[in-house]
């Protein structure tokens, strides 16, 4: 039991640190998931929860940093009993969220490990039950973990440092782009290719005859066999990774093929209400310079804002590029910045820039 307790202690601390760091890698994505929960709770429990939407990013960094700090405190065995009780509160909170999502089909992805590992609601709930089980093992066997690796002031220094590092990681990612991009539109990916399946779907057919059940790779021509069920053998590779990428003009005509052809400098304005307007002077200068480049770079803007509202906005900020429209969720997946810049060559993502990191034209030209 001593060894098992120590394994549970080690895994519990490491998983909390890992989970927190994954979320801090992309605090905007975590905040979007929190907003989704707040919207669901507002419908089911009262509009009071909508108040928290404006603070989703702050809550995102705090909760993610708390996971890291609790994991560090647990591994150091610093104030172990108090740490365990706080861990229990957080685990119960997460278990409620995942059970609620799974039982009532409210949020299809809890975001427990960001976009790095996708879990279904029931898988997420099972993961939380496993963590609660490990917590119980550690809680019932304190006697095997009496020695603390950080006592007194040294422990306070370590925990303070953990808080500072965790928050620093989150704030840095919030003001720029995620350190690691796990989304389909990451640098190096070819959007056009990801919109097509890697291979054709392969099926197996379950047929029945006179009480006998048999599996066929091809649909049998013998009519005495009766169809029972069918299963796709390669569900992951027979479905496109990107299924919802569609860009159109103000009249609804598709611009997707044109966008994925040639050299493009794409400005993405997800929501004009929340975009940083102060950055448009520098952005406009870059977009204008790009159109004069020998690299034949076409500057375009994509937004999810309504045509009438965006037309007013572009005049306010003197934005002179052609503009097109796409789904808001797609744009948030494309880049965690509002506004943000993407460089495409025949649909391949060459670079992405946060509005705090607007590049010089020669840096864009070097990419082609």
From TrEMBL:
Membrane topology label: Multi-pass membrane protein
Key word Membrane present: yes
InterPro entries for the chain: Methylamine_util_MauE (IPR009908)
Methylamine utilisation protein MauE domain segment(s): 1-139
Compartments, record wording: Membrane
Transmembrane segments: 55-76, 83-104, 124-142, 154-175
GO BP, sorted A to Z: methylamine metabolic process
GO cellular component: membrane
Keywords: Membrane, Transmembrane, Transmembrane helix
Main location: membrane
Coiled-coil portions: none
Designated name of the protein: Methylamine utilisation protein MauE domain-containing protein
